[in-house]
Amino acid sequence: MKSSDVMHIASYIWLLLCYAQNARSNLVEEYEELSAHPPLPQFHRGLELPVELGVDTSSGCICRAVYGNTIVVCFGIYCAKFPKVRIKSEVLRVRTTIINKVARGDLDAYYYLRVLDIEANHQLTQVQPGSFQNLSKLEHLSVSYNTQLLSIDNRTFEGLTSLKNLTLVNNGFTNILELTPAFIPSILPTLTWLDISENSFEKIPAHAFVPMMGSTIRKLDLCLCRLDYIHEDSFLPLQNLKELQLGENDLSSNLIENFLISMSQEGVNLTRLDLSGMGFRKQPPKRLLEIIAQTTIKWLNLAHNQFEIITNDSFPPMFNIELLDLRNILAISIGGDTFSPSKFPNLKALFLNNNYLPGIHYNHLSDQLIYLDLSNNQGDVENPMYYEIGRDTFINSRELRVLNLSFNAIKAIFEYTFRGLSNLKILNLENGTLYHIGLGTFNSTPRLKLLNLANNPLTASQNLSSAQFEGLNELRVLILKNCGIKQFNDDDNIFEIMPNLTHLILKNNQLYYITPETLKPLKLLQVLDLSENLMIAWWRPIFLSAGVKPIHIDLKNNKISLFSLSMIQDISYILENRGNKTAEIELMDNMFTCDCSTMYKTSLWLEVNGSSVLKQYFSNSEFRCSSPDVWEYKKVADYMTSIKRLNCLVYEHFNHVMVFMWTAPTVITFIIIVIVGTVIYKCRIYIRYWLFLAKIAIGRKFIRKSLKSTGNELKSYKYDAFVSYCNEDRDFISEMVSQLESHPPYLKLCIYERDFEIGSYISEAVLTSINESKYVILLISNNFAKSQWCRWETQLAEYHRLFLEDGTAYDPLVLIKIGDIENKYLSTTLKYLLKSKIYHCWDETNQTEFWRKLRNVLTRKV
Description:
This protein is α/β, with parallel strands linked by helices. Helices cover 26% and strands 15% of the residues.
């Protein structure tokens, strides 16, 4: 099993639960054993067949093997004979060759084989009798997908005294009467499973299996054989037959009824029957179901038929049925009492997945139900629909152990959704639209062992909290693949309530880091999958600090570019003292930079302080460099070896020199900046004055020329004057408005409290008003000199005057001084204006003369 298979632990367990082929065939016992000892995935480095065995010179076949050489595969377009592999492996597969014949003696050297597959060799036409005579240990043989193999000799399988499973799928066989003589009990005394599916037999006559009289065969597969006729007595010679797979054929219900009745009368007691894809339409054939109900059949497969509407009367009472498969039957509606305990008192597994059911809203399921699959009921692409779960739907499902709701558009789950599932062990909610988990949702499932929430937008509207996962104290496997997780909150650690967790799958999220505090509660953690995230090198030990020591850590396809000392310490901690167990740390497809600056110190530390286990890990590693170009896609281990060959011995000395060369100019530049900044701060008043004088000089010299070149066209103004004043002088402004606007010649003043638009920016309004005014009046008082806004308006007015200065007598700036002004409040600009310009002084004793002079200034022609 590959490392990616850890993402499908749930599917793996369900497969074993529902299709286990051992003799017990007890769903409850099988489940209890699996839940007590969940299967750990086996991880292999690199490719599936990474061990090159080279080309077999005698045959021209290319052969490869897995680590440990337990499986050998030979193939090739130049492979014309059966290969001679010197390695003794228990499994040999010969595929996609140009072998046209398996001759007697070709396989004599493989006496040790337990499994042999001869598949997809499209030029194979003959398997000679006696070819397998020396393979007395062989338990499984597959001669399949060899389309030119049209017949098998009656003595072909001589010598296979231990063979249990024989697979002859999709060859060129057309007559079953030519095959069955090769399966006689004297030649295959231990055969229990015969699969001859996907051959074009079309008909099975009455005496088809007579040569197999007395056979130990228990399972017969005849799927996809284009069968349209089976004689009612065909299977009678197979007295030990228990499982009959007839799916994807064209058999009528009457034919099936006839041979089932005949088998039942003659004591051939089937336990499993596959009638999938038979073309049954509208309703399950009622007469056929009544006959099945009278037999010993426990597992019934009706998948891939077309029963759109299933009513309460569609199934008769079927007291023996333990598993009912209704996958992909296009169902849109199922009656509330269809699977009631009165009809299916022993039903343990029910498959309703891949249909168009809008949800489940009834609680009349069988009380004995252990496995319920309702996955993939979200409609098609053109007609998608949300999947609804009614309140207290599972209130009577206390025996349910496995519930599959994956690939359904479930929006939210709440504390009442799973009420009644007190014995549930596995819950799959993968690939939904689940964005909300209500508080206390899992309090109803205290014995849950596996929870799969992969591919749901869980963090789209909220952060994960411990209150959402409350009640999962016995959880062992948590799958949070592709849930949009960016970080975990250590102050509200969701793993505090999951102390028994052994598998944590966080693949394909957006995690940059994970803290020791997050992992600290997970002392039993065995598998941690952080692949396809945004993880970078960490600078604080994670696993060492947390005291967590998984068997497998997957960090593939992240953003790790170097090995920090903390990473090395964590890797060493995980690898050391494992006893008979071997820890796996996957780092493929990261962004390792293979240069002296990132790898030299790591290599040096490993050489001096690294343990033998740690050194072996790096030397055997397969992760690759991503840069620089010269080392791209080469092994990091090879680069570290190159460091030992003196490639980076000068790096440390060179690095010190480079540090000095970069540091010295930086320090000197910093000192100069500090000195210059100090001088500027102390002389800031003088510098402002110098800049002010420079602005005046520039305005007089250059701006004048610019205006002359554009002509002296008269400009119309919105206001006669813009008045800049301080709020404390508001009374004087009121008098000014009264004197200038209420008496001839009726001037128009811009007063900000009156004329500025509500909501406009003050700075923009001031600039606009100055530009639209013929004159700018500065009402200079002690309060005016103190105001920062007034100083700013004074500066704008002076710039405005300089810009308009063209050598004429027109000067837009009018100064009015009110009272005495303290010298300390005068800005540089105000000092200059009061010294260089004639201004009006307010005279309380002669107000009429003051207003006359001001009016004359504002009305003169320019």
